[in-house]
Every structure is written in C-alpha cells, then in structure tokens.
Amino acid sequence: RATRRIDRVLMPILALTVMLQFQDKFSLGYTLVMGMTKDIGMSRAQYSWAGSIFYFGYLSCQPVAALLLQRFSVIRYLYINCFVWGVIMCCHAAVQGPQSMLTLRFLLGFFEGGLIPCTTLLTANFYAKHQIVARSAILQCMNGVSILFGAPMAYGLLKNGGLVIESWRVMFLILGAVTVVLSLLIALVLAPSPKEARFLLADERTALDDMLKQTSVDATQGKGDARQQVVEALTDVRLYLMWLLPFAVSITNGGITVFNTALIQSFGFSSAQSILLTMPSGAIQVISVFIYVGLFRLTGTRAAGAITCLVLSVIGGGLVVGGVGNQAASMTGILMVVFYVQSLACCVAYIATNVGGHTKRVVFATSFQVAYAAGNIVGPQTYRPKDAPKYVPAQIAILVTLSSALALLVAITFFHWLWNRQRDSRGD
C-alpha cells in the first residue's frame, strides 16, 4: 500500500521534472528550424556550442551538487534548482544575440546538473532494490514522453502566424513558467525520506522503513565516514567502467539532442514536418522501456534489456551511415538509434541498487553525471558547419560510439558475472 502511494505521489512529480529537464535541452533542436539562429544572428558553429556549453555548466555543477547533497536535504536542493532553471528558461525568450544565449545555456546546465543525483538518491530512499529498475526506466523514458508533448507544441507555435513575438520565444516562456510551478509543487509535497513524507500514513512509514532495511541498499549508511567511502569508490573498478559507457553513449546523445531536427530535415522534409517527425523517436524511447523492463523480469538481469536495446541502436546507426541518400533507410535508422537510452537507465539503476553507502553512491552518481556531460559536450562538435546539411562524419560517429558502448556493456556484464561467481564460491 505504501509503495502504491509513493508511485502515485513521488513518481509523477519526479517524472514531470525529468520530462521538463529533457525538453529544456531538446527545445534547442527545435529552434534551429524555428528561425532562432537568424533572429539573433547566431552562426552554425555558435549553435553547436550552444548545445555543448549547456554541458559545461552541467559538468561544473557536479562537485557542487556532491557537496550540497551531503549537507542539505535533497528536496531543498531539488526545488531551489528547479525554480532557478525555470526562471532561466523564461529569460531565453528575451535573448537578442548569440553571447547572451550561450551564457543562459551554461547557467541552465549548471542548475539542471544535480537532477540525476537527486532522482537516484530519492528512488534509493523510497524503493527496495527489486523495485528500482522499473522506476529508473520510467524516469528515463520521460525523455521520449517529452518529445511526444514538445514536438506538437513546437509545431503549433511554428504554424501559428498570429503570435506577437517569435514562436521560439513563446516556447521558452511556456517551458520556464511550467518549471517554476513545478518547483513549488516539489517544495510543498515531496520529502527526502519515508520518515518525513507527509503523504504517507504513520503505519505506512513504519512498514516501509522495515521493508527498506531488509531489502534495499541503505542510502544513508556510512554518512559519518565519508572520506573512507570516497576512497572505496575511487578504488572500485566499477566506477571507471561505469564512466566509459555513459561517455560513449552521450556523444551520440549530445548530437542527436541538438541536431535531430536538422538531420531529419536533411533527409528531404520541411521545417514543420521535421519537427513532427521527431515524435516517433519519442515513442520508441517509451517502447524501449517495455523491452528493458520486460527482459529484466524474464531474465532477472538488467543487462539483457540494455544490451538488446543497444544492439537495435547499432543497427539504426548502420542504417543511417549506409542509407545516405535513401530517405526511408535514413529515417528508420535515426529512429532506431534512440534505443540507446536504456543503457543509461541501466547505469542509473545499477548505482541505486548495487552501491552501498550514501557518500559512495553520491560519488558514483556524480561520476556518471561527469561522463554524461563530457559526452554531450563532444557530441554537438561532431556536427561541423562544413559538413552541413548531411553531417556524414557525425553519422559515422553515431555508429562508432554506439558500437563502443555495446562492447563496454558486454564487458561490464561479464565482469559482474565473474565477481558474483567468485563471491558465491567464497560463500559471502
């Protein structure tokens, strides 16, 4: 009963927060075909940096987030950051030149940078190990849901000729205003742990606390020995394997997030059509959740679904590279590529379920964020202005990075199998 109540209260708010964060990032891709670059005099090179500089801010946030999440309530940190990034999104609507846009994108990245550590800690605090995989996958699929909502909004604004200001400015105002309202909802409703959750009844708090002590990796253990846990994390080979995988995947993600609409337009579609044709990629991200969770329940391992989704992504990358000049093959490929998102969900779920100790888990989550940010910084830079409009070298980069990610995930799976076998032989 307590878990159902948490699913009705905590999960929708976290899901909406993740959805808005992704839409903030993906909205930049819409602005390219909505005319923003012409309106503010931004070159294609500057546009690529607008995608990358977001993640410089994202990366700069990580040590700050790790420190603040040790000292303050995760909910306080989350709602303050959410409020600020909503205000920053509204400020995007007032941009008149490239420099101010670049500055705002950096600030937006900085204040959004702590979201995944927050969601990782909150899911670990409220759910047992076996419950976290499905919840992490749901949060990850909100990226796809955001496209299903964002694309029609951008299309409607683009086609509406009666707006007082440019359509892309209205889009930023809408996203910013909704985010500010959401921050107030987080502050009023959510709590950092079941013991403080006002939306749970007293007997539910007690029952949930007892269950989590027996079935979860304790998110609060070891807070008093933070230095030792940092050393443990830095000497754990898993930390480095789990860094390389999201880095490789995020190179593709960074480019797709910023240039997806432009790539689709290069296949021979109009500006309005290219916005609408991002919607199937959102639906595929949602479908990938069912594949990931279904295979997890069937096999009992997270790797089965994540590997399957990455194989589909690699096939999609091959179609993109091999289908240059073939509209159907290129479009099918670019849609299949987005199956990679479940490899990121696998990493997040692993950190929440297999890393014990609050400080150690924060280090792992922060390392994941650093890898995610670094890959997303590199991604847009593979789309060089001289390669427009086809961006063939960037298409090749998609195939190479996804293939590398697949090899890394297989290696991680093998190492975990080996470690578990050694642990079982010792009788631990």
UniProtKB/TrEMBL annotation:
The UniProt record lists the Major facilitator superfamily (MFS) profile domain at 10-428
Identify this protein by name: MFS general substrate transporter
Which UniProt keywords are given for this protein, alphabetically ordered? Membrane, Transmembrane, Transmembrane helix, Transport
SUPFAM superfamilies reported in the protein's UniProt record:
MFS general substrate transporter
Species of origin: Acaromyces ingoldii
Q: What is its main location?
A: membrane
Question: Where found?
Answer: Membrane
Q: What are the transmembrane regions?
A: 53-70, 77-95, 107-128, 137-158, 170-191, 239-263, 275-296, 303-325, 331-351, 363-383, 395-419
Give the bilayer topology.
Answer: Multi-pass membrane protein
Q: Which GO terms describe its cellular component?
A: membrane
Pfam families per the UniProt record, alphabetical: MFS_1 (PF07690)
> Annotated Gene Ontology MF terms?
transmembrane transporter activity
Task: Indicate whether Transmembrane helix appears among the record's keywords.
Answer: yes
